[in-house]
Amino acid sequence: MFVMEDEKSQVIGADQCSTCDCQEAIDSCPVSAISLSEDNQ
Fold it and tell me: pTM higher than 0.85 for the full model?
């Protein structure tokens, strides 16, 4: 699930998704628009 904040989307409840592969999504994004931050900022 995503939420919009400051014109950016953030994943919420990522720990509840057992079928997601966030790193694969990051690696396959053709415009490098996806990033991962562990600090929730």
Answer: no
